[in-house]
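Extended Data, panel c. Modelled sequence:
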Amino acid sequence: MGYSNFKKVKHVTEKFGLRAVRVPLFTEQVEAIAPSQWLTQSLVIASAIPLTNEKAKSERLISPILSEVHILHKDKVTLFSGEELSVSPKEDLNGACDFFFAANPNLYFLEAPVVSCVEAKDEDMEWGTAQVAAQMVAAQRYNKAQGKSTPTIWGCATTAGEWKFLKLTDRELYIDEKSYYIDKLDLLLGIFHLIIAQI
């Protein structure tokens, strides 16, 4: 089962020796970024379609938003979906990841993953947060093993409607006090802009 075995953040912190801290992650003013006409129209179309399961929400809501982020920052990152990140199967650090941004443009294979995005299973944000935290640990180890050590790994757990951001620096796991919501799409895009600017 890999990453999906992690259902509580405490499980991740205890297993990998992390310290979890709830903090305001984005203390500077977040610049709102207006969504493109394409994204706006995509979400309007999605609203007319039954979104009764995770696959539908991922395809109709999450993927278009992350694709927009990729388009806005295609000179810095590549967006991957469904890629395997197997670092340590015996520690459950293995399996397919919903979405990852890699810290280089125009990549063909996943390299230097720096932002993980996980769809929360059964709309359970604790489970989603724990799963993305485990993937962040895996990304940290993977990058170090590849000689591409990155000081910070970012993560996001989402139900499509709610978005929760995390930051992993060394063994400190910072979890944002706030959640962000799809009805404030310009603010959500601004958060991603802040994150990618720091990569």
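The CA atoms of residues 119 and 158 lie 5 Å apart. This feature is highlighted in the accompanying rendering.
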